[in-house]
Amino acid sequence: VHTAELLRVCKTVFITTPNRRFPIEPHTMLPLMHYLPFSLWRKSLSKLGRDFYASEATLNPLNATEFRSLFSHPTRVKIEKIKLLGLATNLVAITDRPSI
Fold first, then answer.
1. What region does 15 belong to: left with phi over 0, alpha with psi -120 to 50, or beta?
2. Could you give phi then psi for residue 77, rounded to 5 degrees?
3. pLDDT tens digits for 19-28?
4. Which of 12, 16, 32, 88 has the most CB atoms around its CB within 10 Å?
């Protein structure tokens, strides 16, 4: 995601991603496997016949800190958490284009 370009052309940016800390990865529906180191997790997905999801270009789950790091400083980003039974399933980043 090129957040600088989004902020250049949009007044408000709203981006969502699954939360890597949620115990079930929603695209593969596999529990806990995405907690493995990325290289091992991607190899495991391939061995399970889920090559599409093994690609970082297709699936790259993030935690809140990693998600926030996609936005350059001094962009102010609000990270909201969508919860299910008290656990954050998805993260939502909301930011406005800085005033000139």
1. beta
2. -125, 130
3. 999 999 999 9
4. 88
